[in-house]
Amino acid sequence: MRVTSLGFRTDLTLRVLERAEVADRGDHLVIRSPGNPDYWWGNFILLADIPRPGAGQAWLDRFAAEFPEARHIAIGVDTTPDEAVIPAEFAAAGIEPSWETVLVTAEVRPPPHPNPEAEIRPLSTDGDWRQSVDLGIRCFDGAEPTLFLERRAAVRRQLTQAGTGTWFGAFTGGRLLAQLGLFDVGDGLARYQHVETDPEARRQGLAGTLVWHAGRYGTDVLGARTLVIVADTAGEAIRVYRSCGFTPLESQLSFERPPAD
Question: Which of 20, 123, 149, 231 could form a disulfide with 128 if both were Cys (CB 3.0 to 4.6 A apart)?
């Protein structure tokens, strides 16, 4: 299966760099991350098209067969028509559609209100990466298991140590308040990952400042011609990315259901 959407194509490149396994089943891909089975979007199936009417249950059965121990459901769709019909079987199973926007730019510009006080630098020490986990705990308000966040941080650290990209943090008084990653995914593309800001430090220009600094690294150091970022279409973050010069390129549709507990 040839992946055509830029969002999922760069997603898959990152998952492979993280040592995920990708199996091509012809009309869909199976992506598996043995080192982090609780990572929904490291353990999912990617469909070439939206399921035809009446075919939704067959895809739910396929997911269950591929991930028999999974407590979540995560299904991506590579190509999305302007008006997608949500499979009735997905809705009946409590699976919610998620619309995201893939945005691109050749050069990131400063945000309207950059934060001049924060120290922007790569995460490097054991203490930095411990703070990365702690920031994730605060951002998710304890909803994500600590073990999952520790595994996630370990993979991020491995990628940076391999020279694939860098994980940046915004520090104030030595405390990590925001973070994101930017990685080379080939073909002149660099992909942002997981922009997170401490809930008590939002609306201080930290996210926009991080996006800007990382973007300069992407063009100057990684040599990227196009910077790619993905945002919840209805979320607050997309406004920040637009203010830094990103423009929408395509929509991305996925379906997910978190663990019942």
Answer: 123
The CA R_g of the chain, rounded to the nearest whole Å, is 18
Strands 189-197 and 175-186: antiparallel
DSSP strand pairing (165-172 vs 175-186): antiparallel
* Rounded Cα gap, residues 11 and 28, in angstroms: 15
Burial classification of residue 150, based on how many CB atoms lie within 10 Å of its CB (0-12 exposed, 13-18 middle, 19 or more buried):
middle
Would you list the domain boundaries of the chain?
6-99, 119-224
Backbone conformation region of residue 124, classed left if phi is above 0, alpha if psi is from -120 to 50, else beta: alpha
Phi, psi dihedrals of residue 169, rounded to the nearest 5°: -130, 150
**In the numeric block, which tokens belong to residue 134?**
């702690």
Domain 119-224's class? alpha beta
What single string gives the DSSP state of each residue in 138-188?
HHTTT-S-HHHHHHHHHHHHHHHHTTSEEEEEEEETTEEEEEEEEEEEETT
- The pLDDT value recorded for residue 172 is 96
Reduced to 3 states (helix: H, G, I; strand: E, B; else coil), residue 22 is strand
pLDDT tens-digit readout, 217-249 = 999 999 999 999 999 998 899 999 999 999 999
Q: Does the predicted model carry a pTM greater than 0.90? A: yes
